[in-house]
Amino acid sequence: MTEETPGFEEKPDVPSGATPDGAESKAAPSSNAEGAAPAGDAAAQIAGLTAQLDQVRKALEERTADLQRLQAEFQNYRRRVERDRVTVKEIAVANLLTELLPVIDDIGRAREHGELVGGFKSVAESLETVAAKMGLQAFGKEGEPFDPTIHEALMHSYAPDVTETTCVAILQPGYRIGERTIRPARVAVAEPQPGAQSVKAEEATEAAGDDKESGGPDEG
């Protein structure tokens, strides 16, 4: 006969993860929720980093465009400054040589009259050499066609041996620096005589007719 200990009851074995009344333990689902939460946080962090990266990339593109614009403006500024510097230099040289032209004219007249001798000759030639190094060039020759952009006609006449307005005498040479004319050549010009062209045209026509007749077949 088995003796029962008063005040104690035997409790059935309870499976792991179940409550004593047979219900499943609620501890397991809590572990799955804790695992899902970090995955959601990581996705949010990635999205935030992507947005920040887009902002940085956009800011970088804007700064790059600003830098390129500033570089282009600086290059344009350098070219403009260099162009202005060259222009100012050319103007200064032109002004200086323009003031020296009367002296150079006197040297030329002295040379024509045989007065360029001795120490004066040496000084004059040195001055002409310096002026040439600074870019001064004389122009104007007898027999060249008259060009109103570089010639100034002071005398006018007619000549039978010219076919167009021609410079027949250089009264004062012209001067230029590069492509810039600082003084036109002062010249005497001659034009064809009135009616000379028609006479020449008639003579040319008659000459052509004579050539045609002489070039025909010989009679036997």
UniProtKB/TrEMBL annotation:
Keywords assigned: Chaperone, Coiled coil, Cytoplasm, Stress response
Database matches in CDD domains: GrpE (cd00446)
Biased composition range(s): Basic and acidic residues: 209-220
Pfam families, sorted: GrpE (PF01025)
UniProt-annotated stretches for the region Disordered: 1-41, 189-220
Coiled coil: 46-87
Primary location: cytoplasm
Gene Ontology CC terms, in alphabetical order: cytoplasm
GO MF terms held by the record: adenyl-nucleotide exchange factor activity; protein homodimerization activity; protein-folding chaperone binding; unfolded protein binding
Highest taxon in the source lineage: Bacteria
Record localization: Cytoplasm
Function: Participates actively in the response to hyperosmotic and heat shock by preventing the aggregation of stress-denatured proteins, in association with DnaK and GrpE. It is the nucleotide exchange factor for DnaK and may function as a thermosensor. Unfolded proteins bind initially to DnaJ; upon interaction with the DnaJ-bound protein, DnaK hydrolyzes its bound ATP, resulting in the formation of a stable complex. GrpE releases ADP from DnaK; ATP binding to DnaK triggers the release of the substrate protein, thus completing the reaction cycle.
Subunit structure: Homodimer.
Family statement drawn from the similarity comment of this UniProt entry: Belongs to the GrpE family.
Name this protein carries in UniProt: Protein GrpE
